[in-house]
């Protein structure tokens, strides 16, 4: 990653990178840096994300079963009347 500054209409690469990225007018990155930053998670972090997704699906399934059970129970009571 390289920091560019705009001095009188000309972009120049800063020789020393600033501590704050907000000091840069533009940032130059390579495609490798972009892809690594987006998916740079460890296998354990990936497993945690997967487990969280499975948990959400399980909770949704449980709610669906509970609602279906309640609906069928109330429909059978209404048909007996």
Structural write-up:
The model has no long low-confidence stretch (mean pLDDT 80). The chain contains 2 helices and 3 strands, in the order βββαα. The chain has helices at residues 31-38, 43-80; strands at residues 2-7, 10-13, 26-28. Strand 1 (2-7) and strand 2 (10-13) form a beta hairpin. With 81 residues, it is of the alpha+beta class. The chain is elongated. It has 2 domains: 1-40, no CATH class; 41-81. The protein starts with a strand and ends with a helix.
Offer a concise description of the structure:
The chain is an alpha+beta fold and 81 residues long. The chain contains 2 helices and 3 strands.
- Residue share in helices? 55-70%
Question: If helices are DSSP runs of H or I spanning 4 or more residues, what is the number of helices?
Answer: 2
Please tell me how large the radius of gyration is: 28 Å
Distance between the termini: 74 Å
Major beta sheet, specifics?
3 strands, antiparallel
Residue share in β-strands: 15-25%
The class by helix and strand makeup works out as alpha+beta
Low-confidence stretches: none
Number of strands: 3
Summarize this structure as a short list of keywords or feature phrases:
single chain; 81 residues; alpha+beta; 2 domains; three-stranded antiparallel β-sheet; 3 strands; 16% strand
Topology, element by element:
Layout: E1 2-7, E2 10-13, E3 26-28, H1 31-38, H2 43-80
Antiparallel strand pairs: 1-2, 1-3
């Amino acid at each position: 990653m390289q920091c560019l500054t705009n001095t009188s209409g000309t972009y120049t690469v800063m020789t020393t990178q600033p501590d704050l990225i907000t000091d840069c007018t533009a940032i130059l990155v390579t495609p490798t840096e972009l892809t690594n930053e987006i998916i740079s998670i460890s296998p354990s972090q990936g497993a945690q994300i997967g487990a969280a997704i499975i948990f959400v699906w399980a909770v949704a399934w449980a709610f669906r079963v509970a609602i279906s059970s309640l609906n069928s129970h109330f429909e059978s009571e209404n048909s007996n009347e």
